[in-house]
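I'll show a sample.
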Amino acid sequence: MAEKATPPRPSARKVKDKWKAKAWYSILAPDMFNRQVVGETPAEDLARLQDRVAEVTVQDLTGDFAKMHIKLMFRVTDIRGSEAHTQFVGHDLTPDYIRRLTRRKRSRIDQVIDVSTRDGWRLRVKPLAITDRRIQAAKQGLLRNLMVGVVKDAASKNSIGDFVRQMISGDLAKAIATACKPIQPIQRVEIRKSEVVAFGTTMPIPEPGEVPVEAPPPPTEPEAPVPEAPTEEELPPPPPP
């Protein structure tokens, strides 16, 4: 009996490697952080890269280990060649850091404040205060009003870059604690979260390889001439004995 011929095997279908079609782009921090490279990301289409949000800690930008609990969010807003330029869209604290702040027999005071900076940025800031002991609701209301006044005043007097630096450096939290101290001593103040509601004035993005133009140094005042010491001929004669 003749053996049946085996049918030919179908040729294996070629699988397209999607990674080969993607290009790598460098993600640059905003101008307030000196446009540092914070990472790289692949993208096949520029439309998918636009509006992508990158998350980076302050420790990655400054090398300060004490700021590793602060996360910054940057959104891609412009693509120049292989560089993806971003804008600041908010910051947040890690949940484990916030849990370590809360203790028993203490009051936690949260507040949500909408502010506007000097250059037209609108943000939603969420400070957090921990008192040294439990306090009544009426006193908590007074502390919330003080927090609103301090945060709005700081935002109105600073640009977006300076205001963000005050939030992540702790200067704004110190100002809140100082303002609340006459009513109730505050054990800890943190800016728990911030969100950009509307963009304002932004710095122009330099072209790839272009050196940003720096402001000229302020003019220096001419130094006053140093008077020369008188010679022996110019000295007055000694008084008679």
Notes: The beta strands are 23-28, 37-43, 53-57, 70-80, 83-93, 108-110, 113-116, 122-131, 186-198. The longest helix spans residues 137-157. The helical segments are 46-49, 58-62, 95-101, 137-157, 160-169, 171-180.
